[in-house]
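Our consortium's second objective concerns turning raw sequence data into structural hypotheses that experimental partners can test. To show how far this objective has progressed, the report includes one record in full. It was chosen at random from the queue rather than selected for favorable results. The single chain below, 420 residues long, was entered without modification.
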Amino acid sequence: MAKERPPLEEMTLRQLRKVASEYSISRYSRMRKSQLLASIQEVQRSKTLLSSSRSLEAQETVEAAKFELGQEDRTGGSLADVDEGLADLPSGYGDSRIVLLPRDPQWAYTYWDVPNEHKQELRRQGGQQLALRIYDVTDINIEYQSPHSIQEYPADELAREWYLPVPVSDRDYVIDIGYRATDGRWLVLARSTRVHIPPVYPSDWIEDVFITVDFEEDLRGQTQYELVPPAKKIAVTANGNAGNAGNAVNGNPIYDQIFGLAESAEVLRVAGSIFGSQQASARPEQAISSYIFPSGVGMWAAANVSGLTASGVGMSGVGFSASAVPVRPRQFWLIADAELIVYGATEPDATVTIGGRPIKLNPDGTFRFQMSFQDGLIDYPILAVAADGEQTRSIQMKFNRETPSRNTNTKEEAVLEWFP
């Protein structure tokens, strides 16, 4: 086993000269012990730094290799030289144009490109202040109809983009860039296309539509299916049923489908009538039990039960044939009611009242109010006031509930009813 070398400080002059010879230190034979020790330590420090530098280089090489795609540059140059010699992108393209993009239900982003020549022309016509105007154009044509609302924001001459607060979500908007003149005129530089801002609440679009398209069919210029927004579908349904209020169920297509199924089944029944019972007696294989009599007791009369009282229970005769089905009791019950939910959102530091009652806002400014919805008219004015009290927004909603008939009971109130 090789003998371990002692520390440099404990070596003799002869041992230090041997180490200096190994490190190729020049003129080591003429140096004193202190000089040899300093020269050897300097060489060792240099070797340590070189070793760590090489280790760092190797690590960087390994890290860079992670992103290598293994492809060979066949052009013989580097990718940094691909765009060498190309001119810089122009600051504008000579056309007045503005684009509006929704960022979220509360904010929209707009950017524009207007040449200086166009700006100078409108300034000569009296334009003073460059500004942005955002219009609420929901369900209207702004070319010949007035917008629902207008918001104006002064803009900087050197700006090319802007973030704007959205007045109300779930609406269609158009934005203008132009100059406001001292005499009140609005001189338009450019106008964007119509953009729909998404709603702050969950979407009510629950309809799924699946269509089958031939793989070989040319789809260019064809409309396979036209999607109708739920709000417009409800409006069409409500208008179609305006003359027949009995068939309209809140104008909701989902409810219409459900009650439509019930009405189709009702055609096959004669609810609680003696005629229905007679039909069941004549053709029991096709019989469908009637609903309930006014007394609340369901009746499916057997062929050999004579007489029916107003309660729907045969009394004048109790004789059954040998083929009669034994009667059996059973219970039945139903509970149903409605609740009213009002929800929305505003600035987190605003004050919101519903019917004059303050509503607590969530940290993000959303709110939700839930209450029992009984028969009668409920008038709910909703008012939002900014923290400084200088801005307000409001909406008034009226809800009317009517329950034409009710035949319900709880499970505990259910009583035995006799059926075969």
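The partners drew two points from this record. DSSP finds six helices and 16 strands in the chain. Residues 245-251, 261-325 have pLDDT under 50 and may be disordered. Both points have been shared with the crystallography group to help prioritize constructs.
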